[in-house]
User: What shape does this take?
Amino acid sequence: MSALTDRFGRVHDYLRISVTDRCNLRCLYCMPEEGVQFEPSENLLGYGQIAEVVRAGARLGISKLRITGGEPLVRPGLPGLVRELASIPGIKDISLTTNGVLLADQAEALRAAGLKRVNISLDTLDAARFRFIARRGELRRVLEGIEAAAEAGFAPIKLNCVLLKGVNEDEIAAFLDMAVKRPLHVRFIEYMPIGHADDNWRNHYLPLSRVLEIAGELGLAFERIGDVLGNGPSDDYRIRGGAGTFGLIHPVSDQFCTRCNRLRLTADGNLQPCLYWVDELNVKAALGHPEELEKLFLKALAIKPRNHEMAAKLADEAQSHEPTARRMSQIGG
Assistant: This one.
């Protein structure tokens, strides 16, 4: 049995690494538009320190990494980190989640450094709506990033679309059409109450059953398939005759905690067992002490709960643990 097996029998081989809490967008489901207090640069883990933590995890069974933020591409020198992580014994797969705005300029260097796959956030295909959701930036730059990723040889390329009731649900059909016409993998994601379970979340939350309803209304013939290459919890489907796929990531309406295989490392140096709960363990005091770092991984598993309770929060029911006050950008998407 893997050393990273928790008390519920879940094997953990996947570490999501946030390299920064900063972002060049202010997406309305992720960050406030103004007044964001970022961590001072000196509080963030250096690339060498991140690699040290990964080495400890790899000795225990971590083999898959995803680099996140904030927006990871705003931190300088990211290809160098990818190259160092790719050289660690036991690491077999490194991927990246990005908003795509800076990807066109860095795709080739990241691919050459050892990055295998990219997930690109794309919540709308309309330029004006993009500006409304992201509050800054240009849709054009994201689309250029998608093309650059394809030219660099990344595969599969996954597009992450957070569905927001009353905002972009009318584009579900257009995104499904993308999965028919292009070898892209569109994943619809439910809006999660990470750090802000407020009325804005409740008002904009949309269960992903709506995607299957619309696919049916469009007369699309689709079938469930095995997981598209990756480490995520998506339920994946292929439309008959389609070049790509679409997937549903529904942590609120149909939680997938029983098959959770991940831990998270925040940019400021905390191991977080679960995205939703407040529990986290700071690694900084253990840096330079490999055995202590390994103990922190094991302790993180020991305190990891069976599940989150986002659905209970939506129903305004009591919570068994304390939810985190950190925003998604502060933890790592």
